Amino acid sequence: MYYKTEEVLIKDIDVSDVSYGISANRDPSALEESIKITGLVNFPILCRKEKGFYIISGFRRVKACINTDVKKIFANVIDDKNKEDKYLKVSIAISDNSFARALNFIEIARAFNLLLKVYSDKDIALEKAGILNLPNSPDFFNKIMNINRMPFFLQEALVKETVALPTALDMKRFDEDEQKIFVRLFDKIRFGLNRQRALTLLLKEVSIIEGIPITKLVLKDKDIAGIISNDKEDNNRKARLLLEALSRRRYPILTAAKKRFEDNLKRLNLNSNMRLAPPANFEGNIYSLSINFKNIKALKAGVEKTASMVLDPVLKEIMG
Hints:
The protein is α/β, with parallel strands linked by helices and 320 residues long. The protein is built from 16 helices and seven strands.
């Protein structure tokens, strides 16, 4: 064994030293209740220093003990022979977490960061990562290591799953104030990955076209801020309204063409089994008409409607 079990005073544990910390914002409340009933079952792993101890693994366990006013606990303390072995301490810190549960992106990034402090060669670090139950593809490694360079508020948003990883990685295009605005916005209105990408792009382009800072668009623009602050609408509708409002301002000509088409389409009064599709982005002059049918009668009705539609002036208006 590389350590021995000892009884230690909580006050002798330096909780400010998070050199080997991996867990990200895990709520200790459930663990606190367990400690009150059964005590601390899984002992934290500590390393002795000149005065007291620092934590290798078990930050949440120690915090829960402090919160429940526990004065002393049993802990596994790395013996003097191995306390200078950096890889041993890193491997214990990582494996004690990685083999117990699925780590989030922030925790994986922290784990890789610990490995790189021991192995500067990325290939060796990746090899060790696989042994320690971490994903170890080079592409994933390159993405995940960018997380360590993100500001703390963006890392927190990743932990809360407010911001998707690809969106967070793309945030480097924006300054810190803009990043904070996006995080606040995504916290208030939940967007999936594709919608997050669409929203950030639309806000950036509208900001450039209209010469209005993104922060002002989100916080002070009457239309945009009004949608965001409207608590009467549900999340999905607010997300859709926001994207539509920005699209109208980004693509005013396309939006107007779409509105004219939809209004005229209603006037055509097509059968429910018919669909008329305009050219993509209203560019070009090729339209598509489809008829769905399950019997001859439905097909005949569709053909008859098509024949009458050819003479309808509304169709001529649609096609210009």
